[in-house]
Amino acid sequence: MSKLKVWRKVAADEAVDHGILRVHHxxxxxxxxxxxxxxxxxxxPDWVNVVAFTPRDECVxxxxxxxxxxxxxxxxPGGMIDPGESPRAAAERELRExxxxxxxxxxxxxxxxxxxxxQRNYLHIFLAExxxxxxxxxxxxxxxxxxxxxxxxxxxxxLASGDIDHALVVVAFHKLQLSRRS
Length: 182
Hints:
By secondary structure, this protein is an alpha+beta fold. The chain folds into 2 domains: 8-43, no CATH class; 47-181, Alpha-Beta Complex (Nucleoside Triphosphate Pyrophosphohydrolase), CATH 3.90.79. It is built from 3 helices and 13 strands, in the order ββββββββαβββββαα. The strands form 4 sheets. Strands 1, 2, 3 and 4 form a 4-stranded antiparallel β-sheet that branches. β3 and β4 form a beta hairpin. The protein is globular, with a radius of gyration of 19 Å. The two termini are 27 Å apart.
């Protein structure tokens, strides 16, 4: 059993709301020695990612420009969970909006904490199978998404080469691999 104890929050400033996330300044007291540590906490809403496959064993990927890296990224469909929306409903919505695809079967692959050092949210990962194109994309302002339908056999190379390098997408594929073992 761990001997570590929870740090006590001793102060918290009101959050600054930046629309897609809130930023908090908090202070915590160490249970070990009483020292006080400042912490900046970023609180975006929970997110979803969708690993989606067609009946022909093709993965529905997306490619879009990312401001953080100032480059294009190959990813899987995903996005923020709206207030009052379940993770599964958000996954279905994001797949449909970003790609035009709809899935026959859904499986949760679990959730991960994107960066618990300073983020207070979770990423919920879903497997969508039997995906078929059912309509046009419905992109949000600021989105310019290209849909890439890629044979499953090419995914390992895209990951190994770094063509897919978004950490949360890599984790989603890892969670998929782990689910296949059980």
